[in-house]
């Protein structure tokens, strides 16, 4: 399994999409016009980003619509076993009676008969679902939560772990490999994954009415998952399932459930985004660093979305109208304010506004345009007149930019430039200001006020010291956090894990075309029997939903790993990033966004088929019209969540990396990213604008001149770096030496891993025992036949070797 396996198809398809599929006449422009009209009419998306969706939504995504008959099957197995022992309903039993019954199920899991064991597992799964005795969805969630904590308390999860390990190494894998078509029936034995997912997700979520014993059980479960199953974290067992599936050794694994369980396990054991923020604050306090200037999560939530960019068709029509002399007073309307921090000044007079909206100024942007397909003027139809409000309401908007500026590596560069200009030589420090004019002193003072030292810089500096002085500084004390234990377990096979995840992401991407040699991720959604036309429509929706859930799980999983490893140690983050880059993650994400992103964001689902709705309420008759209509939601939460996660991953891979930023330029990412601005959601637009910002200096002056509205949006929404030349720099002469930069980074990573994790290397620095008695008294293990040839060894190695005693007595 090599990284090169993925390289050619992704890059070629991306270039084909960019070069081969050129606009062909009016049809393309009509499609773009329709797409633009739909985006113009779309309101702001009321989306709140978080670790996960609601508990109900997360539980429903475990099941595909094809699995609907299995709910009744689980209930039947439970009732068949339960009624032979009890004459009452489950919810009528006392807690002690429920514990006794669960204990009996636990004993039944130990039987050797595979079919009997599967029936017991389905009965346990029903207890985790417990829907037949409830009248509402709230009751289902209440009793499911009660039963899950009961199952954990009785030790069900440990028994399931042993069974899962046995199933992974089972000989049934070989029979599944030989089958020409894998379907849902081949993965029924792995119903264990459903039980484990329900337990992990239910216990992970905290509620206000949790009992004290449940809170204790949650911490115990978290500690149980973190360190060890057979000496390694539980997540490693799931990573092994992923690599086995991608290497075609176990094609029957239900990969969607494995990925969901893996994501929720890492989310539970390592912590979500809010826990990360708290850990970052504590880490800075421990290193005596100043506190963070702001909470990034709160700042992003307070932002407002920008107006979407115009389509090329609208721009061409406006040009034609101007040529015909039908130019309106206001052909371009100034875009909406991008967020509450950037509202137009409420005290600005009307004359100043008229000057801003002068037609000559607005026309100049279009006249400087080279290619209308690359044009990016953010416009919208004239808005309705604003409602009359008292002037006091307009004063409430805060002033200033949303982010505090940061200075990281600018002071040294600024002083070096200033000294060369005014003195003629450099000193190599940032304290001495002798000989520099007063304005330079003020500039350095301002830069130092906003200086930001990251945890990563401290870690890199400390690592350099440990490499240079291993004996003086001694052994590093490594805190055994959950992230550290996971990294230690993943390190030997890290590249295989990363490549396997990216292969699954490629197979699930909506822009990917089916190939004969690609992996089959639909094994656990395809039914075994032939289906009708209506069922085929439902299956089509189910397949798309299945792929979307896989993308959601992989994107959230990769983002969590990157963020936790970056906080734990920067070089752990860098090695995962480098494996992602070498496996073509950057063009893969760009390929994902090279689609109608508005259509992907607004994908429809069949709500009546979601769990627990489908088992509590009576199922209505499904028709082709109802399937096409779908739900009434404004957007699909999981798809918007996936898009934001992928953009954040792309930002983390390319930030401060010149060679990787040039990959964005080479793969022509600017038009792809600009299309993503059509989604009117502030957080998604922020990360798109970040990606555009880092490459503007490489795109040339003409591109910036033609995209001034995008430049303005970047200025208003993205953090400023003092002395950053992103808006006016032109970098053409700097060589793009991708290999040299990555090799230097890899060398630092390997030194870090060797020093910290290679125990055999540390023997070089062990103290030497110079005492003759202790050296001769050590027991040396010799081969069994050594005493037969002992005399020959003495003659050859001792007596026949001349010893120069004089040389030993001389001083060296």
Automatic annotation (TrEMBL):
Ranges of compositional bias, category Basic residues: 323-332
GO cellular component entries: cytosol
GO terms (BP aspect): cytoskeleton organization; regulation of cardiac muscle contraction
Span list, region Disordered: 1-47, 308-394
Biased composition (Acidic residues): 352-371
Compositionally biased spans, kind Basic and acidic residues: 17-37, 341-351
Far11/STRP C-terminal domain location: 437-790
SMART domains attached to this UniProt entry: DUF3402, N1221
Pro residues compositional bias, start-end: 380-390
Listed transmembrane segments: none
Domain Far11/STRP N-terminal: 42-339
Coiled-coil intervals: none
Record-linked InterPro entries: Far11/STRP, Far11/STRP_C, Far11/STRP_N
Ranges of Low complexity composition bias in the record: 308-322
Domain of life (superkingdom): Eukaryota
Similarity annotation: Belongs to the STRIP family.
Protein name: Striatin interacting protein 2
């Amino acid at each position: 399994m090599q990284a090169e396996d993925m390289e050619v198809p992704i890059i070629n398809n991306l270039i084909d999409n960019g070069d081969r599929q050129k606009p062909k006449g009016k049809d393309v422009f009509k499609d773009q016009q329709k797409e633009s009209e739909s985006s113009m009419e779309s309101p702001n998306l009321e989306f709140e980003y978080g670790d996960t969706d609601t508990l109900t939504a997360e539980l429903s995504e475990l099941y595909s619509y094809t699995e609907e008959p299995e709910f009744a099957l689980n209930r039947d197995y439970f009732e068949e076993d339960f009624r032979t022992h009890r004459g009452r309903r489950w919810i009528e039993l006392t807690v002690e009676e429920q514990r006794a019954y669960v204990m009996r199920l636990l004993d039944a899991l130990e039987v050797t008969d595979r079919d009997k064991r599967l029936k017991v597992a389905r009965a346990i799964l029903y207890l985790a679902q417990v829907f037949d005795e409830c009248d509402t969805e709230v009751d289902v969630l209440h009793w499911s939560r009660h039963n899950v904590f009961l199952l954990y308390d009785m030790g069900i999860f440990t028994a399931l772990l042993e069974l899962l390990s046995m199933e992974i190494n089972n000989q049934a894998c070989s029979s599944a490999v030989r089958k020409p078509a894998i379907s849902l029936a081949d993965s029924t034995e792995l119903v264990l994954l459903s039980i484990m997912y329900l337990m992990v997700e239910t216990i992970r979520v905290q509620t206000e009415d949790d009992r004290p014993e449940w809170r204790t059980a949650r911490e115990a479960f978290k500690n149980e998952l973190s360190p060890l199953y057979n000496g390694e974290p539980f997540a490693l067992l799931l990573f092994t399932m992923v690599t086995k599936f991608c290497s075609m050794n176990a094609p029957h694994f239900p990969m969607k459930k494995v990925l969901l369980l893996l994501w929720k396990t890492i989310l539970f054991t390592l912590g979500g985004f809010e826990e990360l923020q708290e850990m970052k604050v504590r880490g800075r306090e421990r290193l005596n660093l100043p506190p963070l200037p702001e909470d990034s999560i709160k700042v992003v939530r307070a932002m407002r979305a920008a107006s979407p960019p115009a389509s090329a068709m609208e721009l061409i029509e406006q040009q034609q109208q101007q040529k015909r002399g039908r130019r309106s007073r206001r052909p371009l309307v100034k875009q909406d304010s991008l967020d509450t921090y950037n509202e137009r000044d409420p005290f600005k007079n009307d004359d100043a506004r008229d000057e801003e909206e002068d037609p000559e100024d607005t026309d100049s942007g279009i006249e400087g345009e080279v290619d209308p397909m690359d044009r990016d003027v953010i416009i919208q139809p004239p808005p309705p007149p604003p409602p009359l409000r008292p002037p006091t309401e307009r004063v409430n908007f805060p002033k200033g930019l949303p982010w505090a500026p940061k200075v990281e590596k600018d002071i040294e560069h600024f002083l070096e430039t200033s000294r060369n200009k005014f003195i003629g030589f450099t000193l190599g420090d940032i304290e001495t200001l002798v000989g520099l004019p007063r304005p330079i002193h003020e500039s350095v003072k301002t830069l130092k006020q906003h200086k930001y030292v990251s945890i990563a810089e401290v870690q890199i500096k400390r690592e350099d010291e440990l490499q240079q002085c291993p004996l003086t500084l001694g052994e590093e004390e490594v805190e055994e956090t959950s992230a550290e234990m996971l990294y230690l377990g993943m390190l030997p096979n890290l590249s295989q894990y990363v490549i396997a995840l990216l292969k699954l992401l490629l197979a699930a991407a909506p822009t990917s075309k089916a190939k004969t040699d690609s992996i089959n991720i639909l094994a656990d959604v395809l039914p075994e029997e032939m289906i009708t036309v209506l069922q085929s429509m439902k299956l089509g929706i189910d397949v798309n939903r299945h792929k979307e859930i896989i993308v959601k799980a992989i994107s959230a999983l990769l983002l969590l790993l990157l963020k936790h490893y970056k906080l734990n140690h920067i070089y752990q983050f860098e090695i995962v990033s480098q494996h992602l880059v070498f496996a073509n993650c950057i063009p893969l994400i760009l390929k994902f966004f090279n689609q109608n992103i508005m259509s992907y964001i607004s994908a429809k689902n069949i709500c009546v088929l979601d769990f627990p709705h489908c088992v509590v309420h009576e199922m209505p008759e499904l028709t082709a019209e109802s399937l096409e209509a779908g739900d009434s939601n404004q957007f699909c939460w999981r798809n918007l969540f996936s898009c934001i996660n992928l953009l954040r991953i792309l930002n983390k891979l390319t930030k401060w990396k010149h060679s990787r930023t040039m990959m964005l330029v080479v793969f022509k990412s600017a038009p792809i990213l600009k299309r993503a601005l059509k989604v009117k959601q502030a957080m998604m637009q922020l990360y798109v604008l970040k990606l555009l910002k880092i490459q503007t200096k490489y795109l040339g002056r003409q591109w910036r001149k033609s995209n001034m509205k995008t430049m303005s949006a970047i200025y208003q929404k993205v953090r400023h770096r003092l002395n950053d030349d992103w808006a006016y720099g032109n970098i053409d002469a700097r060589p793009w030496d991708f290999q040299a930069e990555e090799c230097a980074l890899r060398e630092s990573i390997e030194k870090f891993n060797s020093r910290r994790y290679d125990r055999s290397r540390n023997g070089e620095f062990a103290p030497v025992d110079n005492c003759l008695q202790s050296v001769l008294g050590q027991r040396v293990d010799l081969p069994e036949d050594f005493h037969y040839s002992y005399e020959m060894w003495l003659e050859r190695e001792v007596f026949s070797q001349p010893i120069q005693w004089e040389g030993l007595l001389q001083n060296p």
